[in-house]
User: What shape does this take?
Amino acid sequence: MKVGIIGWRGMVGSVLMQRMRESGDFDGIEASFFSTSAAGEPGPEVGGKREPLLDAFDQEALRAQEVIITCQGGAHTLEVYPKLREAGWDGYWIDAARALRMDSQTVLILDPVNMPVIHRGLRDGVKTFCGPNCTVSLMLLGIDGLLKADLVEWVSAMTYQAASGAGARHMRELISQMGHIHAESARLVEDPATSILDIDRQVIDSMRGDGMPIGELGVPLAGSLIPWIDQAVDGGQTREEWKAIAEGNKILGREARPIPFDGLCVRVGSMRCHAQGLTIKLNRDVPLSELEALVDGANEWAHVIPNEPEATKAGLSPAAVTGKLDIPVGRMRKMHLGPEYLAAYTVGDQLLWGAAEPLRRMLVILREHLGR
Ligand code: HSE
Assistant: This one.
């Protein structure tokens, strides 16, 4: 099987490459690597071989692939994909970007949650598969058991999204902001006689001062947060917030009878794990222990963290979850709003299940489907 890989050097692409190597995904495929800027230069070493990079705009080279996996981004997809299809290319396109997600001919891939939707798509001849929005994927993996038991009437998700969701440069800037704040207050912090209010004044002066690096984020994120992600859409929502109901129900194949997923999306100073505080309206009163068992048993990755201080602090944070495929779900309790209202908190690595993992798994599913 000839598989072209585009955008393998960026942040999501690098995580994809790492996961594909770890999982042996290159065994039995003929991988070609494309570049938008360095065609002809040596590509990555795979299986002891290193081939020159192909041009990511070369339609002929792209058409020679049976499968294309891309993390290059939406602009490149919109440049090359329509021309490929117009030229009659009927290979499989697996894309991390949002450009094609809402097309009627596209299936969104999150196989632990929507394998039947993926299989139906394959049987129906769908050839375009997109990884969904990271926040939505991580939420659905966490509450998979409740969805499969058809217990969910609606969900409010209040998010705590990592800098990585905005991009690699934003992660760098977050660290630079932390460093700038510390550099300007270190002398005060180290002197035990300094009043905390003097330290605080110095910190806010640094954050508001000209020296604070805000070229990417636009405002301070270190020591602060940003309650706005992506562009405005109708009804006062941001696009990131809109994706929950739009992509969430498309993943579930429930466009005809959508579950209302809504909430506020907030950027916080974590590096690559998104967290979400969920209010889940159940359609009937189910004992908490049963709900915990459903969440725990739904898929290999979601697991319940007991609603206790030590277990929560140790297991339900970006610091604990980064680099792992686990989707811990904790703080589960019935709310004072009523017995059908469940609180939960979940954390997931937005570069793994949130971006790279569904793509590599789609290749595996495709190979099984095609018997290759
Ligand atoms: N839009 C997400 C964010 C990233 O800004 O955090 C991945 O979809």
Summary: The chain has a mean pLDDT of 98. Residues 133-134, 161, 165-166, 229, 240 surround L-homoserine (CB under 6 Å). The chain has 13 helices and 13 strands.
